[in-house]
Design brief:
By secondary structure, the protein is of the alpha+beta class. The chain is built from 8 helices and 15 strands. A 5-stranded mixed β-sheet has the order 3-2-1-4-8, with helices on one face. It holds the Pfam family T2SSL.
């Protein structure tokens, strides 16, 4: 599990402070401490710059929820909604309500600049209001956090006294609340939160979390599909052509056997019978490239998973030499039997494993 580091946007002129979750709770890191690489960095942003809203929504997709939330809170904002950025909480109430947090785009830009300047540009931006437990009222000195009418609010202590008094009555809090350290308390609450609300959504998402625009791949995908179809058609045509050549070779072999032995019944393998009748006294006629390649392509088509890598024809020897890949060891024997069924002579060479593929050599035809 990655180490989680917490910090908060410092006040103007103040230094960054960092704490981390340790085996014994929240631990304060010393000033200028080197932050561990790969840590989960969480930056709390002040609720005085954020407003929280309860919105009822049934949408499930994050992009759709964000779009609906922005329109749902439009009447509650004092500024145009297009100047605001919203983040939707993952937790959903039984009434289908969710908390939606809104912040100005100007504040977002300032916070992101601050993160980049501090060297923590990939950090999450979490509103402090989102980790406030229900019915809790806390004083951080620079602001107070409380729950009013079912939603968290931040209270600026510099507001007029009559406004502060009215808000205090709304919260039902004691008039004198003991101040506590904001960073330590927020980190402690965040450790118990099932999931944090992150303002780094949509256009502000970290590069590793940005959604992929599939429309960029439409043209390359269409070209790839066209090439694949063309290659498939060419492969089918080649196999069919080789099958026709193989059938022609079989017919020619049968004709030669019938001419040599007119009174003999036609054997199942005329070519093998012709070779056997010649014995060792005579030399078999050499096969040409068309015959040997037809036999090879036909055998490859009959051997599932076999694929031709390269071939070379020796005209003097009448021999076709090929390198193939097989789905497994032993498949070369299946291909050898397919070649032998045509009456053509075949020799298997070395079979080995190269880059995870079973590769083998063979030769077809040649002088006996």
């Amino acid at each position: 599990m990655r180490t989680r580091i917490y910090t908060e946007i410092p006040a103007s002129g103040a230094e960054w402070r960092f704490v981390r979750s340790g085996p014994h709770g929240i631990e304060t890191l010393p000033p200028n401490a080197t932050l561990p690489s790969g840590a989960d960095m969480v930056v709390f942003v002040p609720g005085t710059e954020v407003s929280a809203h309860r919105v009822r929504m049934t949408a499930k997709r994050p992009a759709e929820m964000t779009r609906l939330a922005a329109f749902a809170i439009e009447d509650e904002l004092a500024v145009p909604v297009d100047t605001m950025h919203v983040a939707v909480a993952a937790a959903q109430e039984a009434s289908d309500h969710r908390l939606v947090y809104a912040v100005s785009r100007q504040s977002m830009a300032g916070w992101l600049d601050a993160l980049d300047s501090a060297g923590i540009g990939a950090a999450r931006l979490v509103p402090d209001l989102s980790v406030l437990p229900a019915s809790t009222h806390v004083d951080f000195g620079s602001r107070q956090l409380a729950t009013i009418s079912g939603r968290p609010v931040a209270i600026d202590p510099y507001w007029p006294s009559d406004v502060m008094a009215a808000l205090m009555r709304e919260t039902g809090a004691e008039p004198n609340i003991q101040q506590t350290d904001s960073l330590t308390q927020l980190a402690s609450w965040a450790e118990n939160a099932p999931r944090l609300v992150d303002f780094r959504q949509g256009e502000y998402a970290r590069p590793s979390e940005q959604s992929i625009n599939l429309t960029r791949f439409r043209l390359p995908a269409a070209l790839a599909a066209s090439l694949f179809l063309a290659w498939t058609a060419q492969s089918v045509w080649s196999i069919e052509k080789m099958k026709q050549l193989t059938a022609g070779l079989d017919a020619e072999t049968a004709r030669l056997y019938a001419a040599a032995f007119p009174d003999q019944p036609m054997p199942s393998n005329p070519a093998a019978a012709l070779r056997a009748s010649e014995g060792n006294a005579s030399r078999s006629p050499t096969a040409d490239f068309e015959q040997t390649s037809a036999v090879l392509y036909g055998a490859v088509a009959e051997t599932p998973g076999a694929s031709l890598v390269s071939l070379r024809y020796d005209r003097n020897m009448g021999e076709l030499r090929a390198t193939l890949t097989y789905p497994a060891f032993g498949a070369d024997q299946d291909l050898k039997q397919a070649v032998e069924q045509t009456g053509m002579r075949v020799n298997l060479g070395d079979t080995r494993l190269e880059d995870g593929l079973v590769v083998g050599d063979l030769s077809i035809g040649g002088r006996s």
